[in-house]
Design brief:
8 helices; alpha/beta; 2 domains; elongated; hydrolase; 40% helix; 226 residues; Rossmann fold; 6-stranded parallel sheet; hydrolase activity
């Protein structure tokens, strides 16, 4: 690894851990519980999540706002959307999370020499519970819940907040994440080098934006490709 690097920061969801039950399954079960046909897929919620961050008090409020709008757009009443949102939260948040293969080894490896930070989009309560559930919370000197502690990624501010806490600078830090749009774009905007692990996605010939390094898995990370 380059001698000037003193901090390694990670994304959380689908980079280090994932829900035991896919969101698509949780949404399907939520609609079944409410007793209405499912008019939208989980991607509709995921792609619009960031649009509600600033105005929402917490993730439950965010989910209700988004599902309410999606319901109205699908020809349902807003209250039905709220009910589906509540059922989705019950199913989804009760499903638990698990570490992705190689996550614990990567954290243990880098914690020996580098200061570690976490920069994740999501509500602090839920994200910190994931860290505690998976047993990795102690590895991180700082946890920045973007969208709450700072603007959501890809805004560069959460990266700056994390690096200040780690007493590091962008030229001395690496960021590891699975998303081109929030992780790679955000890291680049903040001046960090980025490691992209596509999480099973088909890798385009020319990713946009282009990460500094592209790996197939977390296991490759410990070989220090930079």
């Amino acid at each position: 690894m380059a001698a000037d690097i003193d901090a390694v920061c990670f994304d959380l969801d689908d980079t280090l851990c994932t829900y035991s039950q896919p969101g698509s399954v949780a949404l399907e079960r939520a609609f079944e519980r409410v007793g209405v046909d499912q008019p939208w897929e989980i991607e509709a919620y995921q792609t619009r999540y960031d649009d509600y961050l600033e105005e929402s008090a917490d993730v439950e409020d965010l989910r209700r706002r988004c599902f309410g709008d999606l319901a109205v757009e699908a020809g349902l009443d807003r209250e039905t959307g709220w009910t589906v949102a509540d059922e989705y939260g019950t199913v989804r948040d009760g499903a638990g999370v698990e570490l992705l293969p190689g996550a614990r080894d990567a954290l243990e490896h880098f914690a020996e020499e580098y200061r570690l930070g976490l920069i994740t989009n999501g509500a602090p309560g839920i994200q910190r519970t994931k860290l505690e559930t998976t047993g990795v919370s102690d590895w991180f000197e700082t946890v920045v819940c973007a969208g709450y502690d700072a603007p959501a990624k890809p805004d560069p501010e959460p990266f700056r907040v994390a690096l200040e806490a780690l007493e590091s600078t962008p030229d001395r830090a690496i960021y590891v994440g699975n998303s081109l749009t929030s992780d790679v774009t955000g890291a680049r905007a903040a001046g960090l080098r980025s490691v992209w692990i596509p999480d099973g996605e088909t890798v385009p010939e020319r990713p946009e934006p282009e990460p500094d390094y592209t790996l197939e898995s977390l296991a490759e990370l410990t070989t220090r490709p930079w």
